Input
Amino acid sequence: MSKVFINGEFFPEEEARISVFDHGFLYGDGIFETLRSYSGRIFRIMDHLDRLFESARRIRLTMSWDRPALRAVLKECLNANECGDAVLRLSISRGVGPAGLDPDLCKGPTMTVLTRPFSGYPEKMVEKGIPIAWVHIRKNLPEALDPGIKSTNFLNNILAKIEAKKSGADEGILLNHDGFLAEGSVSNIFFVKDRILFTPALSAGILDGISRKVVLEIAATKGIPVEEGLFPSEKLDTADEIFLTNTTYEVMPVSRINQKKLGVGPITRQIRYAFQTLTGGSETSERA
Output
């Protein structure tokens, strides 16, 4: 049974509670990061914390903790749950206050950390890849919800996930408001054509994923040509290889897009291997 961290205290998961007046619950007014630890090392912890603080700045949420304090909390969560390999979900909401949208109604933020053991997806699943599908749901307009904010308001993504599941896919792929390839409901997307690696640019209205950043660094190191840009859906439909990235996927091959079957190609394998090498205790995995 896991222990949940809430504002400085640990609770057994069956006793973990937040107020029904918390604006994270009432309005989805909050931010979060999903992090992964390998043998007690949290991968790219400072990148995650930098993005968290940038999200806070963009929604004008005053943080009650600095980066060293949050690092200490995350380490404490690993120790309390006796986890070396784990996924940690750090969430910070606007906090408790009367009903109403005014942020000043809240006295201070609420912080929670969920910790669960995780050593990766089954090797058979990774070797085969997962099916994906186009969905009709479009990405939120950047002018409506800044994609640079990793927000707890996830309804856009949830609707995409529901549609993907109905079509028998594990992940739904969204276009942006202009009809260009954006991202998955929980992932960034890469595809390969003629041994060139393509991925949507941030200007497509996507989240600046940490795993996405790592893959781009790997590609530069390995001399793999990369093009970031605005791509119509046809580019993905005619790709030689496709893979997805996020904290738990790392580099997840795609076995099928709609009815088109794909194999796990050489560039996907090369990048996945390099990614796993980085998470195995190199300097990019930092002690919490």
